[in-house]
Amino acid sequence: MTALELSTRGTVWGFTVQRFAPKSPPYVVPEGGFVPFAVGYVELPEGIKVEAVLDCTDFSELDGLAQVTLVAVDPVPRFATDAAMARGSAEALEEAR
Amino acid sequence: MSTGVSIVGAGLSKFGRQPGRSGRELALDAIQAALQDAGLEWADVQVAFGGSDGAGLADTLVAELGLTGIPFTNVKNGCATGGSALMSAVNAIRSGAAEIALAVGFDKHPRGAFDPRPEDWGLPAAYGEAGLMVTTQFFGIKIARYMREHGISEKTLALVAEKAYRNGALNPNAWRREAISAADIAAADMVNDPLTRFMFCSPGEGGAAIVVTSDAVAARLGRAVKLLGAATRTRRFGSFEVFSPSIQGLGVPSSVSADAAAAAFAAAGVAPADVDVAQLQDTESGAEVMHLAECGFCEHGEQEAMIANGDTEISGRLPVNTDGGCIANGEPIGASGLRQVHEIVTQLRGEAGDRQVADPRIGFTHVYGAPGISACTVLAV
């Protein structure tokens, strides 16, 4: 068996929105409380579809064949839309000031 | 040459919440109903198979049924428990090991049941901590993708659930017996987009039992329904199932439902187009839509026009889930597969009362469940 390095950018294959807080345990409610989040599968150029939490500024960004970028692998893979990436950069810049 | 197999008795317990009654008691109700339906007694049964997901061991039922000494095998196969028990009973008849066999499935799930733990599924604790250990997410993602690929509308999802409640209202044994309009279904709380609360089945309670026999015994008893074909399958590589950190392989995922349905039709020597009435797994309304195509009843995407046209209504070209399905009957995991067979037997005998389909000759049943299992039957009169 050989390890295959996967791409970090892919296409949203399918997704849903988690509208209610999952049962705790096992779910760990984030600081500041539960907010609905998107979860789905990202199809990578290698063909595999990876389950991930999907960051976006609006759920409609995930429609169609949205392109997303890997932003974290722990505790589960996390991909972000370009809009969420841009917002993330802006927030980081704000914090740095 | 091995004998053909017939269903001579089918029985259900009441479905829906029954405080103070155990799952085992519901199983006994179903078995007594099936035996009475067949005109047989427990002492006539030569071999039995059965199980529940969380309501106890079927073989302990002999304490109440009678200690006749027959082989009674426990089956624990998730949503396919009933289907696997029936398959085992069928094979016992075919092999000549017995001439009269019984299959039983039952369960009694509390409200909000199905609390899977990541470790039981071979998943890291982090998977649950991140909020991905939620069964309904799988159904939402699968139908959301399917709608985009094949032009299925949100209205169609609401129409499927509306039909389930309407058919449930016609079924004296259903749990949910109040019609709900498609508008109210669509406007209900969103669980996992695009699926609202009223589009899902709920964990429920109930028992179902089927008596199968050789052709010779069936000829003697009468009212028999022929089992033309049956098949159970597990998933192949590349399938998409609940709690999957990834979907392996390239392209369109494989479908265990398609595999099981094709095997059952091949064994039966008939085609999906020959079917007059069908029971398809409707964990939520999108599942019924997708299973119509996966089981071979239409091409992907044709469901939109079929459902708008009323084809799957009791009065339509291919009535589906005439008893209200899982949505109206609830989901007692062990029982659902045999409830479906009970409904088809009832329809083929012309005994379905207010929900009777006009003169059906060939019927089909399909269950699907985690972690990628399916059981199908083709029945005929």
Helices and strands of chain A, in N-to-C order?
EEEEEH
Q: Which sequence of strands runs across the widest sheet of chain B?
A: 3-2-4-7-1-8-12-11-10
* Strand residue content of chain B: 15-25%
Query: Main sheet of chain A, how many strands, which sense, barrel?
Result: 5 strands, mixed, barrel
Main sheet makeup of chain B? 9 strands, mixed
| Oligomeric description of these chains | heterodimer
Determine the number of helices of chain A (DSSP H or I, runs of at least 4 residues).
1
What is the overall pLDDT average of chain B? Answer: 96
Structural class of chain B: alpha/beta
Q: In percent, how much strand structure appears in the residues of chain A?
A: 35-45%
**Greatest chain-chain interface?**
A-B, 31 and 36 residues
Spatial strand sequence of the major β-sheet of chain A: 1-2-3-5-4
* Shape field of chain B: globular
Principal-axes shape call of chain A: globular
Cα separation of the termini of chain A: 48 Å
Secondary structure elements and their pairing?
The complex is a heterodimer of chains A (97) and B (381).
Chain A: E1 9-18, E2 37-43, E3 49-55, E4 67-72, E5 78-81, H1 82-96
Parallel strand pairs in A: 3-5
Antiparallel strand pairs in A: 1-2, 1-4, 2-3, 4-5
Chain B: E1 5-12, H1 23-38, E2 47-51, H2 62-65, E3 72-74, H3 81-95, E4 100-108, H4 125-129, H5 135-150, H6 154-169, H7 182-187, E5 190-192, E6 195-196, E7 205-214, H8 215-221, E8 225-234, E9 246-247, H9 256-268, E10 277-280, H10 285-294, H11 303-308, H12 325-329, H13 333-348, E11 362-369, E12 373-380
Parallel strand pairs in B: 2-3, 2-4, 10-11
Antiparallel strand pairs in B: 1-7, 1-8, 4-7, 5-6, 8-12, 11-12
Helix pairs in contact in B: 3-13, 6-10
